[in-house]
Design a protein that fits this description.
CATH architecture of the largest domain: Sandwich
Number of domains: 2
Low-confidence stretches: 1-26
Number of strands: 23
Number of helices: 1
Mean pLDDT: 91
CATH topology of the largest domain: Jelly Rolls
Strand order of the largest sheet: 4-3-2-1-9-8-7-6-5
Order of helices and strands: HEEEEEEEEEEEEEEEEEEEEEEE
CATH class of the largest domain: Mainly Beta
Distance between the termini: 79 Å
């Protein structure tokens, strides 16, 4: 009897160990790492696949919003990965639904392609959204900012009109920006009849590589906007005075880098923003206080227009959120 019990105990102890070893070995996948993804029809995504204490895990940015942990991730085989994310949608006071979005990803060499299968927003159908992606390039070493050489300053806003800027997606967006009294002001006003107007972002005609960007901004109470560097990375502009530190507050690299301290001013006051982007590292000085110090930027933020983090791109200003004014917008390129 003792021998039988010993054998059963040994089997029970061995099964979990074998199962754990199987899971551990399965997490070393060809999908590990960060991927920049271009979505058919427009939009950018970013996927980070990694091993977390012996289990396969991932985080995802899909077009807009924040980087979020996925709901599940698993391998079908060596060349197929399935990632799901969920979102709670409140239908009414009594009922909420969990919407599930599923990415089925195939690896082809050092590239990926696949589809996102998503329910229609009103749950009346299903969308299949194709995408393609590549591995994010290796991060540069931390640059020595004391050795940077600068070129000739470029005044991006002349204080008189919107020369040098244009509306993005003019076929289905309205421009809420206008120029008056030397200010570039966005006023995405909605009509009182309930008809919704979709406002767009504006971008520079020119594109830039690495640079220093200085500007002044005024954010009314409760409003927000964003400054996009090379069309890739959003520096948050928002009325967050008096709030705790967060990666979604004034001066933050949206959803990626939290300021080291709160340096924003109260709503309605002019604030100075000084940004240096070089070798995929960003430094932000807000109102004379360094709040992000030469930190690596691992990938695009929500609203990015490209997944290519090495390509030149425009400065663009978010216009679909709230009322905000800009002035003294000056860019100085970095010479290499």
């Amino acid at each position: 009897m003792k021998k039988i019990l010993f054998s059963i105990t040994l089997i029970l102890l061995t099964v979990p160990l074998t199962f754990a070893n199987t899971i551990s070995s399965s997490t070393a996948t060809d999908f590990d790492g960060m991927w920049g993804i271009d979505i058919e029809g427009g939009g950018v995504a970013w996927l980070n696949v990694f091993n977390d204490k012996g289990f396969l895990d991932a985080e995802l940015l899909w077009i807009g919003g924040s980087i979020v942990p996925v709901s599940s991730v698993y391998l079908v085989d060596d060349t197929t990965l399935v990632v799901t994310r969920t979102e709670e949608v409140k239908r009414n006071e009594e009922r909420s639904h969990i919407m599930t979005y599923t990415m089925r990803i195939n690896k082809i060499g050092e590239a990926i392609e696949g589809v996102m299968i998503a329910p229609d927003w009103m749950a009346t159908g299903e969308r299949t959204i194709p995408f393609k992606g590549k591995r994010m390039p290796k991060m540069f070493d931390t640059p020595d900012l004391s050795k940077i050489k600068f070129g000739k300053k470029t005044k991006l806003f002349n204080g008189k009109n919107m020369k040098g800027w244009h509306l993005m997606n003019p076929e289905n967006k309205k421009n809420g920006f206008s120029v008056a009294d030397g200010l570039l002001t966005n006023n995405p006003e909605q009509p009182k009849d309930g008809h919704h107007i979709s406002y767009g972002n504006i971008r520079t005609d020119q594109e830039f590589s690495d640079f220093n960007l200085k500007l002044d901004v005024n954010v009314p109470k409760g409003d927000n906007s964003g400054i996009y560097l090379r069309g890739l990375y959003e520096i948050q502009v928002a009325d967050t005075y008096g709030k705790e530190l967060d990666s979604h507050h004034m001066g933050a690299l949206y959803s990626r880098i939290t300021p080291s301290e709160a340096a924003e001013k109260p709503a309605g006051e002019w604030q100075s923003v000084d940004i240096t982007l070089v070798d995929r590292h960003v430094t932000v000085i807000l109102n004379g206080i360094k709040i992000i110090d030469n930190k690596p930027v691992l990938g695009p933020t929500g609203g990015a227009i490209s997944s290519d983090v090495l390509a030149p791109g425009p400065i663009y200003l978010q216009g679909d959120h709230g009322n905000v004014s800009y002035k003294n917008i000056v860019l100085t390129p970095i010479i290499k």
